[in-house]
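STRUCTURE:
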């Protein structure tokens, strides 16, 4: 299925989007056990005429944030939707005065590297990130830990 960008709506998530978001994350094999409706104020969603097409969120910890749950609906991958979601998160992080973004991934290391993130040592993670459920147990120890400076992302250094 091709993404019809004419019908694409990027929006801030609300607590009312919780069930749809959980269904999308479950279909993408991403964790939802730590997700709470009040966390959705840091999520962006993309909808098309068929419903929820993609999502991505931030977990802010001071001037750092964990990028989490970036995914698109099966059949829409590879069409630039992930890049749009990441761009929206970077803009949101800038408004929140975030300086550095971190993430854990098992499958999307190449995608994030292409967009300005680099593998980094888990030992360098800020305390808030280390204490997150994603970091401390939901994502396996084998997950790739990556980081990016927000200034670099905003300057367009991502390829």
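SEQUENCE:
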């Amino acid at each position: 299925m091709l993404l019809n960008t004419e019908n694409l709506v990027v929006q801030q998530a609300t607590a009312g989007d919780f069930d749809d978001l959980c269904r999308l994350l479950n279909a993408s094999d991403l964790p939802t056990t730590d997700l709470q409706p009040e966390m959705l104020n840091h999520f962006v969603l993309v909808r098309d005429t068929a419903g929820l097409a993609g999502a991505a969120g931030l977990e802010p910890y001071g001037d750092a944030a964990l990028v989490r749950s970036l995914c698109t609906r099966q059949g829409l991958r590879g069409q630039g939707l992930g890049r749009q979601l990441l761009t929206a998160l970077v803009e949101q992080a800038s408004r929140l005065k975030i300086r550095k973004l971190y993430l854990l991934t098992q499958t999307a290391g190449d995608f994030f590297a292409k967009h300005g993130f680099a593998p980094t040592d888990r030992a360098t993670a800020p305390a808030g990130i280390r204490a997150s459920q994603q970091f401390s147990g939901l994502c396996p120890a084998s997950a790739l830990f990556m980081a990016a400076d927000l200034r670099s992302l905003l300057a367009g250094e991502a390829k």
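REMARK: The first strand starts at residue 9 and ends at 12.
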